């Protein structure tokens, strides 16, 4: 019988604290039920055959394999590695991190080298940093642990938040953004205006801490207000764009509790917090403003073996 194993890892949405998390401030991230599947099966070829159409940069797969070999001593070969996905890399849901995590869990299972979740996180973070050189690891944390996390860079803080399902609408701006470019752009801002930069980062960090109470108490009005405040800071940081602003205004006009960009900015997705009654009208307004509504559910399970 041919040996095979499949894993699935969730995508993510940043609820609060993007960019500031790169500088050591806290963030809140939720895993989403759009999953990336990685399958490994035995192959006759001595090398690793990779079919990963969903992965925009195959270096993440190579890097995961290299880090796995470094850690376990297993020389990876005679396998075919395939990816498939219910979500497209275009949305900015963290497909590079999801694939890195999915590949590592699949390798550990296939070659019988068990890892704890913490080990999986640490090795996946190294693999992603080998490729990108920058980043907080927040996407990796969501992919490994799932749920909704209070998170600090490198996994210094990794706390599961026991919160009710957040009623979120996601709108894709139609503009593809590049996370590494955005992180570098923010770093330039730090050089150009260090005092303003510091003020903004501290304000975002404080806001994330203050959001915990309304989140844990399901106080949607305040949760939404904090999204609006976070968006103001992100706008000041220069990572919003006209398309995102249009979708955010449309959601707010239609009665959302709050709305903000989610992730690196410069494009990709915005999120809006809505009441059950307002969901439909907010979705319609986002569509009318030129956005694409993406249907996902937050608080999804972390990476797992698929049977
Ligand atoms: C991207 O999803 C979130 C950023 O904060 C980058 C990172 O944390 O690595 C912009």
SSE layout and pairing:
Layout: E1 4-16, E2 27-42, E3 48-51, H1 59-72, E4 79-85, H2 95-110, H3 117-132, H4 138-145, E5 148-152, E6 157-160, E7 168-172, H5 179-192, H6 194-216, H7 220-237, H8 242-253, E8 258-262, E9 269-273, H9 279-288, E10 292-294, E11 304-306
Parallel strand pairs: 3-4
Antiparallel strand pairs: 1-2, 1-11, 2-4, 2-5, 5-6, 7-9, 7-10, 8-9
Helix pairs in contact: 1-2, 1-3, 2-3, 2-4, 3-4, 5-6, 6-7, 8-9
The chain binds (R)-mevalonate (MEV).
Brief write-up:
This protein has 307 residues and is an alpha+beta fold.
Question: What are its keywords?
Answer:
307 residues, 4-stranded antiparallel β-sheet, alpha+beta, binds (R)-mevalonate, 11 strands
Describe this structure in words.
- This protein is an alpha+beta fold and 307 residues long.
- It has nine helices and eleven strands.
- The chain has helices spanning 59-72, 95-110, 117-132, 138-145, 179-192, 194-216, 220-237, 242-253, 279-288; strands at 4-16, 27-42, 48-51, 79-85, 148-152, 157-160, 168-172, 258-262, 269-273, 292-294, 304-306.
- Strands 1, 2, 3, 4, 5, 6 and 11 form a seven-stranded mixed beta sheet that branches.
- Strand 3 (48-51), helix 1 (59-72) and strand 4 form a beta-alpha-beta unit.
- The structure holds (R)-mevalonate.
Distance from first to last alpha carbon:
16 Å
Mind describing the biggest β-sheet?
7 strands, mixed
Mean pLDDT: 96
User: Which structural class matches the secondary elements?
Assistant: alpha+beta
Shape estimate: globular
How large is the count of helical segments?
Answer: 9
The ligands bound in this entry are:
(R)-mevalonate
Low-pLDDT residue intervals, each spanning 5 or more residues: none
Element order: H for helix, E for strand = EEEHEHHHEEEHHHHEEHEE
Radius of gyration: 19 Å
Helical fraction: 40-55%
What proportion of the residues form beta strands (DSSP E)? 15-25%
Number of strands: 11
